[in-house]
Amino acid sequence: MSNRREFLAFSFKLLCIGSGSAFLASLAISSVQGYFLRPPGADDEKRFLSKCIRCGLCVKACPYDILKLATLQEKPANGTPYFIARKDPCRLCEDIPCIRDCPTDALDRKYLEQKDGIYKTKMGIAIIDSASCVAYWGIQCDACYRACPLIDKALKLESKRNDRTAKHAFLLPVVDHEVCVGCGFCEKVCITQKPAIKILPREFVLGEAGNNYIKGWDEKDEKRLQDVNTEKKFDKNKAKDYLNDGELL
């Protein structure tokens, strides 16, 4: 009788452990899917996670209640702050209270020391789906453009001939990736059912050219060539030796 009870108790424990593991696994899987936006100053996710102590002081400091702390069932790491642009964009407070009250520098304090530092932060970047944006259909809409705190800087309107009608012009929103801070105002006001303009983490969408290329029109970048020997020296024998040594076989 005791053996039967022990067996049932052991089986029940295994069932509980298995159910719990499956639940935690499902949470882990769901937590890494999708994307999320961090507060100002959390430019580098690895740096941010290494310094954030999940204290919630940045959330309390936000005067507009935009920031929230992630739970186990949400995408960001549990207890870390984030916001959802479509629901409530960052208001770009000039005194940046979320950074000011962060005790560990997880939200980089360098922006507090810079003039208009909030406009130098990089929370994300606006990406336009031209297939869904009605402005690209020829319907006049400049909602995102008008809402942008950096109007004519981060978000501009470009006019283009409408070849389909030959009578009207397109007024197309265009994002300057170097200026956009990712506040989310454009996504918030987008008139389409699902926003045709979204704020995504910069590492999701931006590439990197590397140091092999020089911007000839940029004086600062061109200075990298000052100490570079641009004279090419060709060794004809080297090519012959390479072919004759049989290294290609």
UniProtKB/TrEMBL annotation:
Domain 4Fe-4S ferredoxin-type positions: 43-72, 171-202
GO MF term list: 4 iron, 4 sulfur cluster binding; metal ion binding
SUPFAM superfamilies: 4Fe-4S ferredoxins (SSF54862)
Entry coiled-coil feature ranges: none
Keywords: 4Fe-4S, Electron transport, Iron, Iron-sulfur, Metal-binding, Repeat, Transport
A Pfam family annotated for this UniProt entry: Fer4_7
NCBIfam families: mauM_napG, PRK09476.1
Protein name, entry field: Quinol dehydrogenase NapGH, periplasmic component NapG
